[in-house]
UniProtKB/TrEMBL annotation:
CDD domains given in the database record: ABC_Mj1267_LivG_branched
GO cellular component: plasma membrane
GO molecular function: ATP binding; ATP hydrolysis activity
InterPro entries: AAA+_ATPase, ABC_AA/LPS_Transport, ABC_transporter-like_ATP-bd, BCA_ABC_TP_C, P-loop_NTPase
Location of the ABC transporter domain: 4-252
Protein name: ABC transporter ATP-binding protein
SMART domains: AAA
Amino acid sequence: MSLLSVRNVTMKFGGLVAVNDVSFDVEKGEVFALVGPNGAGKSTVFNLISRFYDPFEGEIVFDGENLLDHAPSDIAQLGIARTFQNIELFENATVLQNMLVGRHTHRTSNLLSELFFLPSVRRAEIAHRRAVEDAIDFLNLHAYRDQLIAGLPYGVRKVVEMGRAMAIGPKLLLLDEPASGLSMEETQDVAFWVEDIKKIRGITVLMVEHDMHLVASVSDRVMALADGKRLALGTPQEVQNDPEVIKAYIGA
Ligand code: ADP
Ligand code: MG
């Protein structure tokens, strides 16, 4: 069984069909990339999977659960974490504080038990704290741990966002353009991390990325979208050489 199964999903914004009858499966343990020109519908697919939007039509199954039966606040607990194309961090909080808050952004439903300090909640708190420290180690963020986000370079903020998502301990990590705005060196670091996230952590990764070099170097499979439609799906090489994909990029 696939970890994630997106089936015949359509999303409309008024008259605009942003995602048009798209289907794909992401297998456990793989790195799957979504590519396509601007406006192709890539971020909308992410927003559907993270339940920011209700699809107009279609079904999304994650780890045996029908995602559409779940509220957006359940997503992190089900095992899905994401980063955003435009970084979303608290500017006036430290790296550590931003990473610690990650678990709470999606857990309002347990507020009552937190108030009563149930032992299970405290245990979860300690486990999350450990996961945050672990992500700081993994992503080499020690030097920035107690610094405010506001003063940090863009490349570091992107890594903090990845760390916050990782610390939730997800089964599926959604990365929206992890390399955009990064230098070549920083992009290389992202490539190493994505590989380690997959190989060492065993986390499945679904990413949107423009840098085809990065996509080809880390992805097991790639799906190309254009105008909301699926154009091709296969290995990075198959997709790069697909005549429809070449046409969509050159014609755009
Ligand atoms: P990509 O991430 O591939 O660049 P998006 O998924 O962001 O593309 O957008 C796909 C299409 O849907 C675009 O035409 C965009 O303008 C439109 N769109 C995305 N989000 C919204 C929204 N919240 N309201 C209206 N239109 C949207
Ligand atoms: Mg986008």
